[in-house]
């Protein structure tokens, strides 16, 4: 059955409303997608609805992509490098990261799409990694890079936040693939858009 121009125009708003009600957003042709549009004040442990690194229960909260996609990282090849203006560059395996002193802090992640979640993150403080690498105390900026090639830069004001970390777990379990397994940036002063997944490199720049 054909649809004339006027009928088509009347149907467009209904189609948009139905898409939003379905719980997924596609913006600019899919450059940004969220798994849910609901507002989340706090989240609880649920059965994972996604493929997870542990194939078991996971701490679940919305997944948002910014021109990125879920990426399976080869742990045999994975390294976290800390380089740039440092005196002791680091080249850490996942086991090396896990062996470092870790912290667990419940921090709020806020997405530009309107949701927020209080998540118990666990990992290595960014300040600890920078100290081990021999970075100068007053850095101008730090650039964090994903295995996918995406980058975000933390300036000196961002770096002053003592809660910045490279998270390895959420809710007491390893991150899911969708949430950035094996390592994700947690930067409370920045929007969730900048909480880079699959972190593989941290480059320091002195003032």
Written account of the structure:
With about 210 residues, the protein is α+β, with helices and mostly antiparallel strands. The protein folds into 2 domains: about 5-35, no CATH class; about 45-205, Oxidoreductase, molybdopterin-binding domain (Sulfite Oxidase, Chain A, domain 2), CATH 3.90.420.10. Helix content is about 15%, strand content about 35%. It is built from 4 helices and 15 strands. The chain has helices spanning about 5-20, 95-100, 125-130, 155-160; strands at about 25, 30-35, 45, 60, 65, 80-85, 90, 105-110, 115-125, 140-145, 150-155, 165-170, 175, 185, 200-205. The strands form 4 sheets. A 5-stranded mixed β-sheet has the order 7-6-15-10-11. A hairpin with a 2-residue loop joins strand 12 (about 165-170) and strand 13. The termini are far apart. About 30% of the residues are buried. The model is unreliable at about 1-60 (pLDDT under 50).
Summarize the structure.
The protein is an alpha+beta fold. The chain has helices at 5-21, 94-99, 126-132, 156-159; strands at residues 25-27, 32-34, 45-46, 58-59, 64-66, 80-84, 90-92, 103-110, 116-125, 139-146, 151-155, 165-170, 173-174, 184-186, 199-206.
What attributes does this structure have?
single chain, 34% strand, 4 helices, five-stranded mixed β-sheet, 2 domains, five-stranded antiparallel β-sheet, disordered N terminus, 207 residues, alpha+beta, globular
């Amino acid at each position: 059955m054909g649809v004339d121009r006027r009928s088509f125009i009347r149907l467009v708003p209904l189609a948009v409303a139905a898409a939003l009600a379905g719980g997924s957003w596609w913006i600019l042709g899919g450059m940004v997608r969220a798994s849910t549009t609901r507002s989340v004040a706090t989240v609880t442990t649920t059965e994972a609805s996604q493929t997870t690194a542990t194939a078991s229960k996971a701490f679940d909260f919305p997944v948002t992509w910014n021109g990125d996609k879920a990426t399976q990282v080869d742990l045999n090849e994975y390294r976290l490098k800390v380089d740039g203006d440092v005196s002791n560059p680091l080249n850490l395996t996942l086991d090396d990261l896990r062996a470092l002193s870790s912290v667990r802090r419940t921090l709020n992640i806020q997405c530009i799409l309107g949701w927020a979640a209080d998540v118990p993150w666990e990992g290595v403080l960014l300040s600890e990694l920078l100290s081990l690498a021999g970075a100068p105390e007053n850095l101008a900026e730090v650039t964090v890079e994903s295995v996918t090639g995406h980058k975000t830069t933390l300036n000196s004001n961002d770096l002053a936040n003592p809660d910045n970390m490279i998270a390895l777990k959420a809710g007491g379990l390893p991150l899911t693939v969708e949430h950035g397994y094996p390592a994700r940036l947690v930067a409370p002063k920045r929007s969730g858009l900048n909480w880079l997944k699959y972190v593989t490199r941290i480059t320091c720049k002195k003032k």
